[in-house]
Amino acid sequence: RLGANPTISNCLFQGNEGFNGGAIHNFQSSPTIINSSFQGNKSENGGALYNTSSSNPALSNCIIWLNRKFFSNTDPSASVFNNASTPTYHHCLVENWDLTGTGSGNFDGTNPANDPLFTTSVNPASSPQTGGDLHLLPASPAIGQGLNSANTTPTDLDGNARIIGAKIDLGPYETAVTFADLFPSGDPTLDSDENGFSDYYDYAAGGDLATTPALSQASGNTLFKATRRTESGDVYGQYEKSSNLIDWFPMIENVDYLIESSTSLDTGIEEITLRLLLIPDSTTNRVYFFRQSFSTSPPSP
User: Fold this and answer.
1) Which of 9, 143, 163, 220 gives 279 a disulfide partner, CB atoms 3.0 to 4.6 angstroms apart?
2) 191-229 residue pLDDT tens
3) What own/partner pairs with CB < 8 Å and gap ≥ 24 does 256-265 have?
């Protein structure tokens, strides 16, 4: 629509056909498009989006992958065509476009390794059509790579919680990835580095199964850095203390420790800096020890 500037959020566009713009044709309009996926669409130009006459759409947390222009899936305009228009992208993956130098948090869509791994893609050459499934597979590079502040809706297209883990996923669906998905060779009973935690939970802590520390001596006003993987919804972490290395008790935030900062180190790994408030036992003068532990059950309140 001429001059229309709608907000499009948590939507999928799959298997559509148009003359200019298989899914959306913007003419002097600048919509805001959030957490939406475009796949299997085709047109004469702009397989997914066609922007003309000062149309400047703003896309955040979106995926545009495997669409078609004429007889090509690899031309940049198989995804997006721009005529006197300048879209903006934040945390987006657009096939045939390297967006890493534009906006923020964007992917290189010319790299086949960044295939978003939809559950079932459709062949755009056969569109218009129905079918397909744009949920992300557990190994998708688009999981946990979005900008949380771009989407204020509490649920995804399925009605599930919009954010699982530390960061929102790209596209209209959140993916409940499990550690079994991320680390299929993990053995809940094997402790390769003999640190008192299984390989499975060492991995949960962001460890490499060989150097993950088991314990640290804790004293008042001491800073401690802990890492954890954030993609999973089936393993829970907590901090524990002990004065005898036998009996362990949950630590309480703002009583036993303060969280000073949180930093994303790598895909799915978060480093947390804690200030420990533990002091030696006044009766025995024993120091406390501190550890990070993981369980498949939520920690006790």
Assistant:
1) 220
2) 777 767 666 666 666 665 444 444 455 555 677 777 776
3) 257/224, 260/223, 264/166, 264/167, 265/206, 265/227
**pLDDT tens, position by position, 84-114:** 999 999 999 999 999 998 999 999 999 999 9
> Which helix H or strand E contains 202, and what residues bound it?
helix 199-204
CA distance 129 to 159: 25
With CA atoms as reference, report the closest residue to 36 among 157, 159, 167, 129.
157
Given a contact cutoff of 8 angstroms between Cβ atoms, the answer to whether 51 and 163 are in contact is no
Within 8 A by CB and 6+ apart from 291, the residues are 214, 215, 216, 239, 240, 242, 248
Burial class (CB in 10 A: 0-12, 13-18, 19+), 124: buried
Tokens coding 111:
């790299």
Question: For residue 107, how far is the Cα from the chain centroid?
Answer: 13
The encoded tokens of residue 101 equal: 């130098």
CA nearest to 36, candidates 94, 75, 114, 97: 94
Q: Mind giving me the DSSP string for 145-188?
A: -S-GGG---SB-TTSSBS--SSSPPSSS----B-HHHH-TT--T
